């Protein structure tokens, strides 16, 4: 084909962390790189995330005193992952994750610290109860982005104050547990935003980038230094395959088809099919509701469909990064419920008024259990988070931020909070049988008074305790609900993105249904079927592989050793 409108070495479709990493490594290896993004904002779901990455054996973990074993990490992942995920893909992730992070920190403003965050199934062989495989990014000054900060995606409402004021993980802890100095930090951070008038009025952004904004922002800063362009509002329309190889793509630019040749390869990094209701219904019936997904609205699976059209295989399309979510009417996504479920003074019940799970388990496990319960019994969409007066005024609950009374939130938030002077009155407000709910609370309270949960063992696993309140003993996750009035908020079986997609090999190359690599085509992040299968081994196993395989793919197509 000779009618190309533009030629580059590497074309990256999508501007999430995996795509930006592939672009940066390619540019560092002297490739001519172009990034195109379908939406009018860049950063993808990565920018709205917590920014955490799961990296075994990292240099920063060693500096923190944690000596990891890569064989243990492989054993841990292999046991949890789906049987159809090749060993080579898991091994490639484990072996390349630490070198990727070393390169990232040496070549971008992005800096990570290892965190004592237990693996989600730390009791399994190879798991780490101490943590230090999960890494969190340090804040960055967004001023270095210049005008590009205006088009950086805002942080998720679940990870920021009103969607504008960014928080670091340690500051969230201070607020959550009212640790010493929390009021000072709250006031200082709010003042930094509201008093930074020239910057705030022109960008509406918080100058200080944290969590996923810090990761995406730092990658973009490094790309800008390399002179790599990023075109917004440029969706992929189709891939061009000539013979065995993919040689280019047709995108839409300015409302017209625009043909781009990629001499070394195309990296598909455009996310999953989170917001494509039809694709979810066809492929992932256990997770049918697109509106509950925490993915960004532009994640509609276009690049997965384009890959299938030229012969790419797919795998585990039925899977998602499951999660319980709050859904505020009028918002375009669900808000991940992470911390709230583990804190003492709350329980979750289905529409029959019964507990059916360990509320403090990982969000993926809880999300899966909710989805299966809904599919089998039809009474978990929504469930109800029940909490008492002490909890309400001691901890934030979902959209109810610290110090912010319900009246300060929009009508959508106020409409989902229910209140009753007694458990029976609350049951009537939420349409649950009063006798069943009262009995469930009584059973829970009897055990919680002794720090025990004989039904579901809440607070026994290392991960459960991670988000508990250690000031409360003997079990940081358990306290009777006995201090009325009582409250309830609906919580839905949702996800933070789909994780089935195009089949890839250990080099990030897309393969066909028989496992044969398609030259010139790579896929990373949720665009590719995850090496985790349908599991969620630890915090950061979404972004960790996205960055790692972006690194691996770019090195492979530019002649590196990967």
UniProtKB/TrEMBL annotation:
A UniProt-annotated Pfam family: FAD_binding_2
UniProt GO MF annotations: oxidoreductase activity
Keywords attached to this entry: FAD, Flavoprotein, Oxidoreductase
Source organism, top-level taxon: Bacteria
Gene3D superfamilies reported for this sequence: FAD/NAD(P)-binding domain, Succinate dehydrogenase/fumarate reductase flavoprotein, catalytic domain
Range of residues in the leader sequence: none
Domain FAD-dependent oxidoreductase 2 FAD-binding positions: 9-543
UniProt key word Flavoprotein: yes
Cofactor requirement: FAD
InterPro entries for this protein: FAD-dep_OxRdtase_2_FAD-bd (IPR003953), FAD-oxidoreductase_2 (IPR050315), FAD/NAD-bd_sf (IPR036188), Succ_DH/fumarate_Rdtase_cat_sf (IPR027477)
GO biological process entries: steroid metabolic process
Name of the protein: Fumarate reductase
Origin species: Sphingobium quisquiliarum P25
């Amino acid at each position: 084909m000779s009618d190309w409108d533009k030629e580059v070495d590497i074309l990256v479709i999508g501007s999430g962390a995996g795509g930006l990493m592939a672009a940066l490594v390619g540019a560092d290896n002297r490739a001519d790189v172009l990034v195109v993004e379908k939406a009018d904002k860049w950063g993808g779901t990565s920018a709205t995330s917590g920014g955490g990455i799961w990296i075994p054996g990292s240099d920063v973990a060693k500096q923190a005193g944690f000596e990891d074993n890569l064989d243990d990490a492989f054993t841990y992942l292999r046991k949890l992952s789906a049987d159809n995920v090749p060993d080579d893909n898991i091994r490639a992730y484990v072996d390349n994750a630490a070198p990727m992070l070393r390169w990232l920190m040496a070549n971008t403003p992005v800096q990570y610290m290892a965190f004592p965050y237990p693996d989600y199934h730390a009791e399994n062989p190879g798991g780490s109860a101490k943590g230090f495989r999960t890494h969190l990014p340090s804040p960055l000054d967004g001023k270095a982005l210049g005008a590009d900060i205006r088009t950086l995606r805002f942080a998720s409402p679940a990870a920021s104050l009103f969607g504008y004021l960014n928080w670091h993980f340690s500051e969230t802890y201070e607020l959550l547990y009212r640790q010493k100095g929390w009021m000072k930090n709250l006031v200082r951070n709010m003042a930094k935003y509201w008093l930074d008038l020239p910057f705030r009025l022109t960008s509406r952004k918080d100058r200080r980038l944290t969590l996923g904004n810090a990761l995406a922002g730092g990658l973009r800063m490094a790309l800008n230094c390399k002179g790599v362009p990023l075109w917004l509002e440029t969706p992929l329309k189709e891939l061009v395959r000539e013979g065995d190889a993919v040689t280019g793509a047709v995108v839409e630019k300015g409302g017209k088809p625009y043909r781009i040749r990629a001499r070394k390869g195309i990296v598909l990094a455009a996310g999953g099919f989170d917001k494509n209701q039809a694709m979810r219904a066809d492929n992932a019936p256990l997770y049918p509701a697109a509106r509950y997904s925490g993915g960004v609205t532009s994640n509609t699976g276009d690049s997965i469909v384009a890959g299938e059209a030229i012969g790419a295989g797919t795998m585990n399309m039925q899977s998602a990064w499951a999660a319980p979510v709050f859904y505020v009417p009028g918002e375009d996504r669900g808000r991940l419920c992470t911390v709230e479920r583990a804190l003492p003074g709350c329980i979750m019940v289905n529409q029959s008024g019964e507990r059916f799970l360990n509320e403090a388990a990982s969000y993926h496990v809880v999300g899966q259990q909710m989805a299966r319960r809904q599919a089998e019994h039809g009474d978990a969409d929504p469930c109800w988070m029940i909490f008492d007066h002490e909890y309400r005024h001691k901890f934030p609950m979902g959209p109810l931020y610290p110090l912010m009374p319900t009246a300060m939130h929009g009508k959508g938030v106020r409409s989902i909070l229910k209140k009753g002077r007694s458990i029976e009155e609350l049951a009537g407000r939420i349409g649950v049988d009063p006798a069943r709910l009262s009995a469930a609370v009584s059973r829970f309270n009897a055990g919680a008074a002794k720090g025990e949960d004989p039904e579901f063992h809440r607070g026994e696993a290392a991960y459960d305790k991670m988000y508990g309140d250690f000031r409360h003993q003997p079990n940081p996750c358990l306290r009777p609900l006995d201090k009325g009035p009582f409250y309830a908020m609906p919580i839905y079986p949702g996800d933070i993105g789909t994780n089935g997609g195009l089949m890839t090999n250990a080099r990030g190359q897309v393969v066909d249904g028989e496992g044969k690599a398609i030259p010139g085509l790579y896929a990373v992040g949720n665009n590719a079927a995850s090496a985790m299968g349908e599991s969620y081994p630890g915090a950061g196993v979404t972004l960790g592989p996205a960055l790692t395989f972006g690194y691996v793919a770019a090195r492979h197509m530019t002649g590196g050793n990967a």
